[in-house]
Amino acid sequence: MPLPKNTVYAVYRDETTRKYKGNPKIEALPPKMNLKKIKKCLTGKVEFDVRDIYEDDIDRIHMISSLLDDFFQPLTTHVEFERKLSLLIRKGYVGRNLADGSLRKHQQNGYERVMAGDLDAFVFDTPISTASSMLLTGVPGCGKSSTIDRILATYPQVILHEKYNFTQLVYLKIDCPHDGGIKNLCINFFRAIDRVLDTDYETIYVKKRHNIETLLSLIPQVANKHGLGVLVIDEIQHLYGRSSGGVNNMMSFFVTMENTIGLPVVFVGTPKARDIFEKELRLARRGVGLGSLVWEPMKNIAPIVDPRSGKIKTNEWRSFTDVLNTIH
């Protein structure tokens, strides 16, 4: 039977990093990328046919409007984010190894939390969490979401481990609801899982009218069941303006997920999102353990001449515009 479009069979390769060796979830991931590979994978070129100029005017309007849809020039900020995401995913899997039983402990503890309705409940000694989280902020329209989608696409979203009879969900990206509500966030999570894995969690859990505490305890269990590698939450600034109690409850939940099941979380939003974390030092320290990235509009910095060679030093603005100028 053919696999779904976003699913691949696990192919294991020897890991060069000592802590990653013998971990099927990590060994089934694509190899870590160096700078040259990152640029090759992320670069998107403009493709067109010069004969298009002879097409009908209405067709040319549509062609021109979509001309830059595939164009993408990797910048330093994109490379930095890719490297941090690669680290987040792999570190998070260290403590959830299919081969040594640590994943089963997480799953059993998750079951106990569901039954007890308590996120802190456990039956085994809780395995050490190796996960971290991070915050990415940038002004609207700077390409945060599209860049993240492009970087996530360098990974298969679902990996089928036939040897272990296990389906690994490498990443999941959801939006924070406009009202910043915890229940709607839970719904978005289950709905996204259903869309990717063709499951029915929304019907099973949400439509049975479980309370928020139960839904929150079910999310880590479902994430563990499918070996979720990283959860990306976009539009996190929607929490801004909510009562401090509501924000603290939601952020504390994410911190608990990181600590109890070892799930890395990437928060993405506008500069307002930084205010949410900076209001509470605890959230800033625990909620973004791998630090934060701030994407600002690219600036046209005056060219600097190298005094030794007499040549103009290349900066990102110049490199970007040089690439654009080659499109003809």
Explain the overall architecture.
With 328 residues, the chain is of the alpha/beta class. The protein has a domain at 76-295: 3-Layer(aba) Sandwich (Rossmann fold). It has helices spanning 24-27, 35-42, 57-65, 76-94, 102-116, 144-152, 182-197, 201-206, 212-225, 244-260, 272-279, 281-287, 316-325, and strands spanning 7-9, 134-138, 158-161, 166-169, 171-175, 230-234, 265-269, 292-295. The strands form 2 sheets. The protein has a 5-stranded parallel beta sheet, sandwiched between helices. Strands 1-3-4 form a 3-stranded mixed beta sheet, with no helix packed on it. A hairpin with a 4-residue loop joins strand 3 (158-161) and strand 4. The model is unreliable at 121-125 (pLDDT under 50).
Please summarize what this structure is.
By secondary structure, the protein is of the alpha/beta class. It contains 13 helices and eight strands. Helix 10 links the parallel strand 6 and strand 7.
